[in-house]
Amino acid sequence: MAVGSKELMPRELATYDDDRLVTELKKAKEELFNLRFQAATGQLESHGRLRAVKRDIARLYTVIRERELGISASPAPVETKSSKKKSDKAEGEKPEAEDAKAEDNE
Prior knowledge:
Blueprint lengths: L9 H6 L2 H24 L6 H22 L11 H25 L1
């Protein structure tokens, strides 16, 4: 079993979109900074947490780089009800615009 955040398991990271990965990376870097500061001042209680956060950061960088290289694909965006309605309206408008173009050509 991997040490670290249970929410940053590789299976979970594969489902995150690119923006969420960057957000999680920023959070992990902030946490690492705080942990290092605590270690320097002698207030750190759990030294294992330093190692776990470093590994989380490495996992995040790995997933981001895999997507840049095309090794793994980004998850497909999930359609919401509001975006479906917009796409239905847009599809309904397209034939009318094509009909108008056809009439102009005649």
